[in-house]
UniProtKB/TrEMBL annotation, chains A, B, C, D:
UniProtKB keywords: NAD
Species, as recorded: Glutamicibacter ectropisis
InterPro entries to which the protein is assigned, alphabetical: Gfo/Idh/MocA-like_OxRdtase_N (IPR000683), Gfo/Idh/MocA_Oxidoreductases (IPR051450), GFO_IDH_MocA-like_dom (IPR055170), NAD(P)-bd_dom_sf (IPR036291)
All copies of domain GFO/IDH/MocA-like oxidoreductase, residue ranges: 141-251
Domain of life: Bacteria
Family matches, as SUPFAM superfamilies: Glyceraldehyde-3-phosphate dehydrogenase-like, C-terminal domain (SSF55347), NAD(P)-binding Rossmann-fold domains (SSF51735)
This protein's name: Gfo/Idh/MocA family oxidoreductase
Pfam families for this protein: GFO_IDH_MocA, GFO_IDH_MocA_C3
Domain named Gfo/Idh/MocA-like oxidoreductase N-terminal: residues: 13-132
Disordered, as annotated region: 345-366
Molecular function via GO: nucleotide binding
Length: 366, 366, 366, 366
């Protein structure tokens, strides 16, 4: 599998982390611990915050502005962990300066911005990668491996639940807050990526907070099957579960069950194909389905820090071994579904008077 | 609570069970055991099947036709457990003959039929009741009691999951097979019943069986909140779970956990109302939400046979103490949502070319 | 595996059930449904109870005394489901009359009685079998199969928990009430049966009920490993769990988890054997143990009525295909451990003054 | 409750941490973060390890010997986190120098050493405290509170399970490795502390590692009830569960279930006391027990770092507000049970030839 990075003989790559707030420290810590990277600088408008972070990560330089960082420091790459609406501006400046860029999720605040970032990086010949951290967890890597190997057979349905008691975010609704995780994971594990025909979103704001706090996102995938995501900030029980149903086996990922995170059910459902072939359309509707109850299997998962693997993949991509598994295009597919969900919600809201459609038919995204 | 039936001093009511197939034996057995009822006859076209059932239920008469039953036997009531598409005809004949009628779910195969049954029973002054058995389980009765007492505060959202590996039914899709349970329960527990503004259904037929095998049903209730139901015949894991989120508390019903079927989380989410009052619309969007982690409580549930309570309620209704909690009107509300789901699915299917709406705006159902 | 019984061409064997109380109806129902058996009579001092049971099981004869049954009815076998203290007398009479006998657990009220029954049956050339029903469940049969195949490697420890809120029995303590299940299962699944070196019992009677309501039973098996059983009538949580730890794999049987009753952990613990060989005794104590985290596997289990298989095995034994897997000797081994537990408890109670041993060294039981 | 420490107006107490290995960093970090403490020095023979720790904890002094620490630094207290067999020597030296001392568990490697430490501290008028960290977790504090308030009624039994796949320790067996947690918790939560009449230990060494890897420890408490602890290094499933059964309610603590760590079952078992009073001893044995199935309740638990509370309690004790809840005497009671377990194991091992007792009758420990 292409994910595993080789420990290389190359000299360490030089990186700066921009943003020392919530996520930046995690990135900085991992860069500091890696032999493939040298953490050169922490950049933040808040110099004290940057200084505090620098102290815990081997005392890289502390820089107060992006201009200064790009002008004065010899770096190969920039890791951006600032608020989402600033990603585009910072990334574009770094790309223009010829730097490789990894961006905290979401890639950008809209797909136009994201598209521009992808194109600029392509033009500049630099790597643009999204830090979709979940994709580098042992469980998700195993899911990707199983799907790539066709272990589940044809996919039949996907159902993901990500609910908990969460603070209402000031700037985004529950879709933009939580669904990027599910969407980036789907893009990562589905062979060929997340390509949707239609997107339907249903949101609810029972607290009158001015934004959806409960959300259901349904996607008809190119293969015709339905993928469904439930996100919810108001649930007292925390659930992180994804079910991927296949014609041969079905996989359940329960991220909150450390003793059995992944379970593969060797239980298949079959139409009586013999009958179907012989019969006309009417009969086919009556075709019986049989099911088979086989063993259940839970693969052992190794343990490592996902962020460590992510930055290792970033390094490998820069050195040309392969495109990053969560590259800019992948992140763009996620953004486009989120925008389609926005549109679906807006049309529905309009539709309460006019009864128009709330389903957004997606253009081909590739 | 009005559900509990008095053991009465009345003479036993006389009942016949029509249909000795899958569900009829359960009804017959409970009528036979009840002191409020006398099981007079089993009626089935298949006389041998009827005879077998009669032997196990105290040897009531065995009758081969409904005409004969209604003409020759002195009965107060008829319990119908035949295929759904025959409910209307049998019930109408029994009502016309002045009999009280209880019908296995669904009440009828469409709402026009159901409406006619309701109206005829009203005109004839007979009781028409639906055997929504789940509503008479200890867990659902307790949920109804908690909601009636306002224990959860304002309802914020409802989410129900009913999935398992199931045989594809020859005559109905997964919505009509499984969702009547959820819908009848919702109608039973929500104060005022299940009244929907809009119904959106998304179905998927990944096996090409000619009908939905995976379904999502979303309802905007009159109160504005979203109720969501997930039904699925293709899931290797069996889940029977309903979450009812309230402004004060949230309830989780896990029907497959006999040791803790109902859990009430005293965890609330609050907008900073003070801030909201002072602020204009823009600020309100930024209002912070705080949450409170309180105790969890799981009420003890008594144990009894739901069907025994159901037929006791049927008797009490006939004797005039109160309308049955799952009367014809209740069953009709369930039918109308299922029909709206049908329409939503049909429009969606059409809409894939024309991009029309798949949401059905419901007329006021009361 | 020898458990599976052949559907034979023999004429049905003729059986009478003695005792129509709690367990007799289950036996009678299964005999009545079996094509290998003909249920000839129900025998009970309480003729009305016997009559009621006969009505539900195809109307066999109803007999009020054992003498009459053995004298007047042409039967091959007797199934005894009377109180434990009557097992010996009834079984001896039936064996003397040349009948094959199956006895509800426990085989007898003490091992002297049990031994006499075993010897008499051997002398008479009749089959004596114990109805250790649990042994014929799909889960236990699978455990036996896995252990017979050496799937777990060498056994390292066994731990069984059988606790719930239960009524204090008038005639037996918690050991005699619940532990026969665990003991008969262990005898059934351990290759070679349950052979113990020492038995230690610790009981507690915190309610002053005059008998142990909480019990711990530890057995040193012939192989040197420890098997431990916890039984408890006072636990508000119900647990039915057995762990069998092996050098290669470990098996967990959770009988209350229908979705994953059996789980096999491919997780081994290894001493650094290399080091052990080279080192002297002192060093050996410091030998490090490494552990391996492998996959988890849960075998599919078929579904059938255990009692149906038990009576089928009884028939096969009578017809000479093989000894019953839960024969009199097996039941005797269970009795002897229970008696050793009694002795351990008695010595302990004495020992509080005199400080004598509470561990009973078992004579060789074979 | 006496556990909650007041935020005081006293100047910070001055402390040194001795031992920078596994546990020392946790202590140092908490002292460094506390406003009640000033971390003055880290003392370790391995100066580099001490230096590394000092860098992360505000750069206290780094000292290579205890003599130097006690001679040259102005400190109030010493926190000892060195190997168990060195606790006694280090603590005695610190106590002699007039320092307050907190010691990582176990207090000492044997009870004679522990007794000497307790007496010396008493003579010197200094505080001697054991770092029984578990006792300062929200769950254990809540259990203590519930038991102190008599919420469970009379205690009936206690059962604790602490099993997982663990490395065999070079210096201690599974009892000394794991049971100190259970014992210190029991001493903390049982009103009056852990006072045992007899201790019975059964150990097993199926891997021939030279020490018990599977252990069962039963204690008859002064109240006459049984407390049972199961520890196991060879279990592929990890369990951390304690059940405390009471006459009114029963408590289950499942430390691996973050969503419902504590559950209180309002389920009681009652002997028919009326009958017992009237009846003689024989009848009493037949007294029936009834049980009641009430609600289940799971209290909300606050979240904080237990070690932070522990050092806060240490400070409060020094300032004279109250004795530390896990003082030297408490730790000594734990040591004495572990030694009694040793004796029980030794006698058992001897007893296999001579059939002597393996139960150790405890002297009164207070």
């Amino acid at each position: 599998m292409s994910i595993a990075a080789d420990i290389s003989v190359y000299p360490a790559l030089r990186v700066a982390v921009v943003g020392a707030g919530y996520w930046g420290p995690n990135l900085a810590r991992n860069f500091a611990m890696s032999t493939e990277w040298e953490l050169v600088a922490i950049c933040d408008l808040d110099l004290e915050r940057a200084q505090n972070l620098a102290r815990k990560t081997g005392n890289p330089a502390v820089v107060g502005s992006l201009d200064e960082l790009l002008a004065d420091y010899d770096i190969d790459a920039v890791a951006i962990a600032t608020p989402a609406h600033t990603h585009h501006k910072i990334a574009m400046q770094a790309i223009t300066a010829g730097k490789h860029v990894v961006v905290e999720k979401p890639l950008a605040d809209n797909s136009a911005h994201g598209t521009q970032m992808v194109q600029s990086a392509a033009n500049a010949g630099t790597i643009l990668m999204a830090d979709h951290t979940y994709c580098y967890t042992p469980a998700v890597l195993k899911i990707r491996e199983l799907l790539a190997a066709g272990e589940l057979g044809e996919l039949l349905y996907i159902d993901s639940t990500r609910i908990n008691l969460g603070l209402v975010q000031p700037d985004v609704d529950v879709f933009w807050d939580l669904a990027p995780h599910d969407l980036s994971i789907l893009d990562f594990v589905i062979p060929g990526g997340l390509n949707t025909r239609t997107v339907t979103a249903l949101g609810s704001d029972p607290l009158h907070a001015g934004k959806s706090c409960v959300g259901y996102l349904s996607m008809e995938l190119e293969s015709g099957i339905l993928a469904h995501i439930n996100v919810n900030w108001l649930s007292p029980t925390k659930i992180r579960q994804m079910v991927i149903g296949g014609s041969k086996k079905t996989l359940v990922w329960d991220d909150l069950n450390p003793q059995q995170r992944l379970t593969v059910f060797d239980r298949g459902v079959d139409l009586d194909r013999q009958k179907m072939i012989r019969s006309d359309a009417e009969d086919r509707k009556g075709a019986t389905i049989s099911y088979r109850l086989g063993d259940t299997w839970s693969p052992a998962l190794s343990e490592f820090e996902p962020l460590g693997l992510m930055i290792s993949e970033f390094a490998a991509s820069i050195r040309g071994s392969h495109r990053p598994p969560t590259d800019g295009l992948s992140a763009l597919r996620v953004l486009k579904v989120l925008e389609a969900a926005n549109d679906s919600l807006a049309q529905r809201s309009h539709g309460e008077q006019t009864n128009n459609s709330q389903t957004l038919v997606m253009e081909n995204q590739r």
